[in-house]
Amino acid sequence: MGSCFCGPVAAAGQIVVATFPGNEVLMQVPLGTGTQFSLSFIHSVSKTRVIDEYEIRGKEIIQTCEYFSAHGAGLPSSPDEPGGIRWEKQGSRFVLYMARPIPKLVVRTDKNYENRLKVPGRTINLNQWEDQALLLYIPHMGRKPTR
To answer: What phi and psi values does residue 81 have, to the nearest 5 degrees?
Structure first.
């Protein structure tokens, strides 16, 4: 996987994985000095891996890239997607570079789709819990996000 992380960022500390909408904390994942993370999954239609990259900028999560190898439902089809910057093909994969703010990062997990959270030096299997919706957030000043 190439990387499309860019721009000035501040250290975030950790990502919290919680149930959604219940906000029960399941795990706190240290980012170390990093500010980037990614989510990956197997697309339900194309059955190919999709990788979404994110960066923490201040108090925001910004999606910076989406890598995929086959177009399908829910995947971008042009650089005109919300937050899209440019589009390119890298070998057999497509990449949409973007600067898309994500106000609430909710991941719907399904064991069939191998949901993974990757932070520097570690990959977390998000399917270790039952299939459900998970909220990923960066804690700021000890506050949990509202439902």
So the answer is: -60, 155
**61 strand-pairing partners:** 56
**Number of alpha carbons in the 13 Å side-chain half-sphere of residue 107:** 28
In SS3 terms, the chain reads as CCCCCCCCCCCCCEEEEEECCCCCEEEEEECCCCCEEEEEEECCCCCCEEEEEEEEECCEEEEEEEEECCCCCCCCCCCCCCCEEEEEEECCEEEEEEEEECCCEEEECCHHHCCEEEECCEEEEHHHCCCCEEEEECCECCECCCC
CA distances from 12 to 15, 33, 143 (A): 8, 8, 14
**pTM of the full structure:** 0.83
Report how far residue 74's alpha carbon sits from residue 43's, in angstroms, rounded to the nearest whole number.
9
The pLDDT tens digits for 83-139 are: 888 888 889 888 999 999 999 999 999 999 999 999 998 999 999 999 999 999 998
Neighbours of 7 (CB within 10 A): 10
Measured CA to CA, the distance from residue 46 to residue 145 in angstroms comes to: 33
